[in-house]
């Protein structure tokens, strides 16, 4: 803010005496029109107990704010706090000093220069500022104009300077030099004043740095505080020619601010209205939550009770319990299914009765796939070799295609590249309603297909799937990244329908997956419970069910079969009786096997880098064999690529 008349260029030297009566020569001077910073108690004392002489001697006056000038300008402090006013004392008329532009002999009454100043303080920063102003020399009253420099915010540190005044003179009195030591000795002790939070002196202002001790102020009341020296912030620039050398000589003085404790006083007790009592509405809400909790527990209890009553604990009689402790495979219990036709699934294995593919070792049954080339030679697999199981009398199928095969490179026919085993309990253990538990570890290796499943003994309702199929567990030897599910996933399914095309297995199918482990990492129990009320498969106990189907609706109704086939022929119900369990109301036997590959869709096309196509059944087997450099390394040894069975238990309902 700046407001001045055209004649405000008159300059004057502002001096402040520390002792006007004794005419002490210790002076503090600042240019006229500037803002002098009295951030030190010494500077405040210097100003408050002395005269300010801008060509005319002034005395300290604690008068209130100046009246407005004719031009409307008023003297206003910056920030809040105590304000003290310095005004001209016109009682003294003798000329003092030289005012440029006027003759020394000119009477002082012709120079009605009115110069004033304001000391401003703010309790927030402990800094005192004295603002001096120049008035128009042609005006005898009021404040015609003033100049004020912008105020800057204080910085944490402050460079203080003690200006040594040059000699001053009065008419008839010789100039007397002023010393720095004299200034220091003549300044009384006064308390520090607050710093204004609204201003910071510019580089052109004079700065006092005289250190003083705290003493009570004579001008205003201030609460007593701990001793603290207030200092102005340091500046990178000089304060001007008058004080530049002094600033450089003063050095830095580091100060501390007041410590304000935020610790709660002893005995302080905060109000806690929420502890005094609860409103009725709050109590009502608490009761609602409590009642809802009790009702929820009751509902859970009812559901548990209903679930336990639906799954009845039947009395079972043991039909088969084989722990393979005899050291050999008991062929009275287990029979081999020997075929080369792929079992209707286009599988790539030759099911044998060889001890290389099924054997007992260390109390466990092993079903291990091997390479056919190791038995008959690699060249015979592709051309000119014949396998005739009918001639040897080992084939277990009545279909010629399942009992004989001849390799022919021209036609693309080859001997199944893998030998494996399929073991049955058909001749020893068949049950209608009962329980089955097989504890086993599944094989790991690409395109291996282990299975624990059951087929009907007599196929009462017709060929597959009319008479049904129970898959307790099926899996794939691929790793867990295989999209269709690898060795970490087991599938459980019931197959049923009038024809293979109308197999409604997807209505009675589900899976269970292991986390952070696989079925090849350890032994698990794969179980079946089967009664005239329900059929259920589970993993490692009844609490982890795979599928659960309650016999509440006939399968013909449940399957929603069409009335005709695509060719227009009629679709007949293969289960005409009112039996809700049909086709699962007849005897079934257990099958354990490890298959390889297939074209039935168990290994979907375009997933997991599968080397063959399910639609190209003529070349699927050879395509699989020719890509053996990719999948053979995933099979591992017998313990890895084979299914290892620890025990088999079959029960019937007593």
From TrEMBL:
Transmembrane intervals: 284-307
Compositional bias segments (type: Polar residues): 1-12
Keyword Transmembrane applies: yes
Pfam families: Glyco_hydro_16
Keywords: Membrane, Transmembrane, Transmembrane helix
Gene Ontology terms describing biological process: carbohydrate metabolic process; fungal-type cell wall organization
Record domain GH16: where: 348-654
GO MF annotation terms: hydrolase activity, hydrolyzing O-glycosyl compounds
Source organism superkingdom: Eukaryota
Biased composition (Low complexity): 199-210
Region called Disordered, residue ranges: 1-33, 62-81, 164-186, 191-210
NADP recorded as keyword: no
Family matches, as PANTHER family: GLYCOSIDE HYDROLASE FAMILY 16 PROTEIN, GLYCOSYL HYDROLASE-RELATED
Family assignment from sequence similarity: Belongs to the glycosyl hydrolase 16 family.
Official protein name in the record: GH16 domain-containing protein
Highest classification ranks of the organism: Eukaryota, Fungi, Dikarya, Ascomycota, Saccharomycotina
């Amino acid at each position: 803010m700046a407001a001045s008349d055209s004649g405000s260029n008159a300059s004057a030297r502002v001096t402040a005496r520390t002792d006007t009566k004794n005419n002490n020569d210790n002076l503090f001077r600042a240019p006229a029109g500037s803002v002098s910073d009295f951030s030190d108690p010494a500077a405040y004392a210097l100003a408050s107990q002395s005269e300010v002489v801008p060509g005319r001697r002034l005395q300290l006056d604690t008068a209130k704010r100046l009246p407005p000038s004719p031009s409307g300008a008023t003297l206003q402090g910056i920030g809040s706090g105590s304000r003290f006013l310095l005004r001209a004392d016109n009682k003294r008329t003798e000329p003092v000093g030289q005012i440029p532009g006027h003759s020394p002999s000119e009477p002082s009454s012709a120079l009605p220069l009115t110069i004033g100043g304001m000391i401003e303080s703010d309790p927030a920063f402990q800094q005192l500022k004295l603002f001096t102003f120049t008035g128009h020399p042609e005006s005898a009253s009021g404040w015609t104009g003033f100049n004020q420099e912008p105020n800057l915010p204080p910085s944490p540190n402050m460079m203080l300077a003690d200006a040594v005044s040059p000699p001053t003179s009065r008419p008839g009195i010789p100039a007397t030099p002023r010393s720095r030591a004299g200034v220091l000795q003549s300044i009384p002790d006064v308390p520090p004043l607050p710093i204004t939070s609204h201003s910071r002196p510019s580089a052109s202002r004079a700065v006092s740095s005289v250190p003083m001790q705290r003493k009570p102020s004579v001008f205003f009341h201030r609460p007593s505080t701990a001793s603290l020296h207030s200092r102005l912030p340091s500046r990178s620039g000089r304060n001007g020619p008058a004080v530049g050398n002094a600033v450089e000589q003063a050095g830095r003085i580091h100060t501390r601010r007041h410590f304000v404790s935020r610790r709660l006083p002893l005995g302080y007790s905060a109000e806690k209205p929420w502890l005094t009592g609860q409103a009725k509405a709050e109590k009502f809400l608490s009761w609602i939550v409590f009642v809802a909790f009790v009702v929820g527990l009751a509902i859970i209890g009812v559901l548990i009770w209903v679930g336990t009553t639906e799954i009845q604990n039947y009395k079972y009689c043991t039909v088969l319990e084989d722990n393979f402790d005899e050291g050999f495979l008991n062929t009275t219990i287990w029979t081999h299914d020997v075929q080369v036709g792929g079992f209707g699934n286009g599988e790539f294995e030759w099911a044998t009765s060889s001890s290389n593919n099924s054997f007992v070792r260390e109390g466990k049954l092993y079903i291990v796939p091997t390479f056919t080339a190791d038995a008959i030679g690699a060249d015979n697999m592709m051309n000119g070799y014949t396998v005739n199981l009918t001639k040897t009398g080992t084939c277990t199928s009545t279909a010629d295609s399942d009992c004989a095969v001849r390799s022919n490179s021209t036609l693309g026919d080859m001997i199944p590249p893998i030998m494996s085993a399929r073991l049955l309990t058909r001749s020893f253990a068949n049950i209608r309603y009962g329980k089955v538990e097989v504890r086993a570890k599944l094989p790991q290796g690409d395109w291996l297909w282990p299975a624990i499943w059951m087929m009907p003994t007599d196929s009462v309702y017709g060929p597959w799937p009319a008479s049904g199929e129970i898959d307790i567990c099926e899996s794939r030897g691929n790793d867990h990244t295989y999209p269709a599910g690898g060795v970490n996933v087991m599938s459980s399914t019931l197959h049923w329908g009038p024809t293979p095309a109308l197999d409604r297995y997807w209505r009675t199918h589900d899976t269970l997956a292991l986390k952070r482990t696989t079925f090849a990492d350890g032994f698990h129990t794969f179980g079946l419970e089967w009664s005239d009320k329900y059929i259920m498969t589970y993993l490692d106990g009844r609490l982890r069910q795979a599928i659960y189907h309650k016999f509440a609706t006939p399968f013909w109704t449940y399957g929603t079969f069409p009335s005709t086939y695509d060719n227009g022929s009629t679709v007949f119900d293969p289960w005409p009786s009112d039996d809700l369990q049909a086709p699962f109301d007849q005897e079934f036997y257990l099958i354990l096997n490890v298959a390889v590959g297939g074209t039935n869709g168990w290994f979907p096309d375009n997933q997991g880098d599968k080397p063959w196509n399910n639609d190209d059944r003529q070349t699927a087997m050879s395509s699989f064999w020719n890509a053996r450099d990719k999948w053979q390394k995933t099979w591992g040894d017998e313990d890895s690529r084979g299914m290892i069975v620890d025990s088999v238990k079959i029960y019937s309902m007593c």
